[in-house]
Amino acid sequence: MRSSWINFLSGKLNELVLSEQQIEILKKHWRLEGEIKFHRRLANIVYFTHMNGREVVLRLTEPGHRKVQEIESELHWMSFLTANEMRIATPIPTNHATFVIEIPGEKNYFAALFEKAAGAFLKDEEAVEIEMIRQWGRYIGKMHRLTKSYKPP
Q1: What per-residue string of b and e applies to 105-126 under the rule 16 or more CB within 10 Å gives b?
Q2: Per residue in 38-58, pLDDT tens?
Q3: Beta-carbon contacts of residue 91 (< 8 Å; ≥ 6 apart)
Q4: Inter-residue contact 69 to 3 (CB < 8 Å)
Q5: Structure pTM?
Q6: Which of 18, 50, 95, 132 could connect to 33 by a Cys-Cys bridge, CB 3.0–4.6 Å?
Q7: C-alpha pair distances (Å), 78 with each of 31, 83, 86, 100
């Protein structure tokens, strides 16, 4: 069922929504290399691309979905978690040390770039075992403990 839903969502939306001018704006802020490949569209539009020879994740958010301040706050918190040894998709700052840029155009977007998180997707046919659930619980518990000491900007 899940894969059918993803296929439905990505079916007509799997093309690049950015203009050449918008791509150039992205490249001024991050040193992106090569093709920008569509991954999925749910609450955000997600692409894979490359920077410094490694695959990274480009996330576009429509301004009607979230305010730039909300995105900046989320990425600041994620950076805090990374600095405290949580293994997550780390936000990558721009050349100007910001995490979010606005990309104006026929349709505006907020863009953010992330390191790809280590690991693999759980396959539908894989059984979830009790030890895996315990590990997730410990990990989420650590994230909650860290978040209690987080000071927003």
Answers
A1: eeeebbbbbbbeeeeeeeeeee
A2: 998 889 999 999 999 999 999
A3: 75, 78, 79, 82, 99, 112, 113, 114
A4: no
A5: 0.83
A6: 50
A7: 21, 9, 9, 13
